[in-house]
Amino acid sequence: MLLEVNELYRFYHIEDEETAALRGVSLEVEAGELVALVGPSGSGKSTLLNCIAGLDEPDGGFVDIKGERMTRRSEKARARLRALHLGMMMQSGNLFFHLSVTENIRLRMMLADRRDESRIRSLLSTVGLAHRGDNYPTQLSGGETARAGLAVALAAEPSVLIADEPTAEVDKHTEAMLVELFETRKAAGFASLIATHSEQLARTADRIIRLRDGRTDND
Ligand code: ADP
Ligand code: ADP
Q1: Closest to 192 (Cα-Cα) out of 154, 160, 158
Q2: pLDDT at 91
Q3: 140 lines ligand 2 (CB under 6 A)
């Protein structure tokens, strides 16, 4: 099991108001599986992905990535686990704006103790950005930004990839390219969990997990 999410709860408190963003969510993603996470806005998708990434701490339950506990660990331990085994494409973006695309990929690899310039070049060409390595994120179109984000997410060959609406702001051509890259990862035995509204992506997925009001709703 590459990703195990067990009985996750997350409550947000704003003044006297309590929102239960996650109410006992459990799921598993195996090696070689591409799982689509779908659900209406506010159903808890981003909260779930943030808890998996160790960027948010759940109030109950646990997350294991490649058998290692992500939840209730020190910030340092979570950052290490993220760096080694997790690739993320989040809505906030995963590019540093003061670094070129090449430098972003190189930094992500260094965080996982890897150094391989030829891999950087091959990643750039895989996502169709061979000519954009020296550009800064502000010089990229929306579609190119998403593809650069994926190149960074995949830089350290993460066992588990999570993505939050990766195709939300891209054209059809880029959407098709992202879907194809997610399929390639599946064939290579990695696990992906992708929150999406894309029908093309949902059709490609091995399974669809539906979230509604912070609960899975699969039957
Ligand atoms: P989705 O990604 O499916 O749109 P979210 O995980 O963003 O859902 O939100 C789930 C619920 O938690 C919503 O009711 C949202 O308003 C609430 N929520 C999310 N993040 C916060 C936060 N930082 N503070 C307070 N409430 C939040
Ligand atoms: P998209 O529809 O994918 O968002 P755009 O219309 O924004 O595409 O961009 C089209 C082309 O113009 C892309 O190749 C992109 O790299 C280039 N481009 C867009 N903005 C800039 C910029 N600020 N500097 C350099 N090139 C840019």
Answers
A1: 160
A2: 77
A3: yes
Tell me, what DSSP letter sits at residue 52? H
Q: Which are the contacts of 188, defined by CB distance < 8 A and separation ≥ 6?
A: none
Q: What is the model's pLDDT at position 118? A: 97
- Counting ligands in written order, the one closest to the CA of 41 is 1
Q: What is the CATH number of the domain that holds 49?
A: 3.40.50.300
For ligand 2, say whether the CB of 169 is within 6 Å of any of its atoms: no
Task: Ligand 2, residue 170: give the atom nearest the CA.
Answer: 3
Q: Kindly state whether residue 104 falls inside one of the protein's structural domains.
A: yes
pLDDT at 218: 60
- Bridge partner residues of 12 (DSSP): 19
Ligand showing the shortest atom-to-Cα distance for residue 128: 2
Q: How remote is the C-alpha of 91 from its chain's centroid?
A: 9
Say if 207 falls within a structural domain.
Answer: yes
Q: Is residue 161 part of a domain?
A: yes
In a domain, 16, yes or no: no
- pLDDT digits over 20-51, tens only? 999 999 999 999 999 999 999 999 999 999 99
Mutation pick for ligand 1 pocket among 9, 12, 37, 52 (CB with most ligand atoms within 8 Å): 12
Question: What is the predicted ipTM?
Answer: 0.71
**Is 152 a residue whose pLDDT tops 60?**
yes
